Amino acid sequence: MTVLRFGLTPKMKPVSPRRSAVVAGLDLGTSKVVCMIARLEPQAPQDVLRRRSHGVRILGFSHTAAGGMKAGQVVDLIEAEEAVRQAIDTAESMAGVQLESVVVSLSGGRLGSERFIADVELNGSAVADGDIARVLAAASRHSVRDGRAILHSLPIGYALDAAKGIREPRGMLGHRFGVDMHMVTSDVAPVRNLMLTVERSHLEVEAMVASPYVAGLACLADDEADLGAACIDLGSGTTSIAFFSGGRFVHADGFALGAHHVTMDIARGLNTRIASAERIKAIYGSVLSGGSDERDMITVPTVGDDEREPPQFVSRASLVRIIKPRIEEILELARDRLATSPFAAETRARVVLTGGGAQLPGLADLASRILRRPVRIGRPLGLAGLPEAAKGPAFAVAAGLLVYPQAAHLEHFEPRRTRQLMTGTGGYISRVGQWLRESF
């Protein structure tokens, strides 16, 4: 399969730095669906977040339990659509707006990075906008492996003759003009079905973006992205990784192991219901083995319908012994994935943990020992009006979807064909059909 120049997923029109805009983000995860609506208002650059051209003010917020999702992928279209509709309706009511499109996150589909280098002839003339467009188009014409879709197409740096790592080539002179292009890819099927789920809710997918990328946009300070930092998003069904260097998103990876696997370990180890295991993890879960007392007991409901059966009692130390090995496994996999990238292999780079799994007490210290890097827990930065419940790492991806429009100008894409306005059931089917025809 040869990928068309405009890529396989919709690309967002960059927001004007001088205009306000209302944007909506939809984080359709394995355990929860989050919808956030915000107004982007032009602002002067901030000290910590210099690259943001707009302030973000939350207008509407909702989250609900996910349905029909497993490992970041749709497995039941009807259940997933119902959860999406519920989250969107609540957020729309709170914001007092009716949405036409949303920015959607993707955590499943085996996220990965592809790098391509291309160059064009300049004949000694100065680099102009047309030359940049030519070299970006040349890099984008590369083939991607069968069954993969392009989520992001980002120039890492330009080259003029022997000079490399050029950030702004306009007006410079040379004979050969090249670009180093980073493409983030995913399996095609999860992209198709996630888009179909949203379209069945009568919304257009404005853009589909990698979850760890937008989590990094929400939680990383500019200096961290400049010096080199990894954002590891510990979701329910997946763990995904984005690495930033020189202020650029340069590497992505992911695997289907997450916090839900910890819940299942608790349910099996304590012989309790999955819902009870999730509650026990949220209230008592920890990876701090040294502070756990064998005499500090918790009540665990047993599996079964007989309410007369007495509950069992287990120590917090026993709970830690169930949770910690799975978390260590996830962190060791993340460490190995980071080691495969020439950018992410820098051991002095900071790691920022996001996602619901990052809320376990003691996780930052454990991660620092396993990853052998400085580690902190990431929380959304620079969003006004964010509800208290959404200020933690579990909502980093949803918050980052509202920051992403300010970074959309960094991506290379060609304008999508003009869409015909359609209504009724045939509207979303026709739009999905058009996208599939254009993309494959």
From TrEMBL:
GO biological process assignments: FtsZ-dependent cytokinesis
Keyword presence, DNA damage: no
Domain called SHS2: residue spans: 23-219
Topology class, membrane: Peripheral membrane protein
Gene3D superfamilies: 3.30.1490.110, 3.30.420.40
Homology family: Belongs to the FtsA/MreB family.
NCBIfam families: ftsA
Protein name: Cell division protein FtsA
Organism of origin: Undibacter mobilis
The gene coding this protein: ftsA
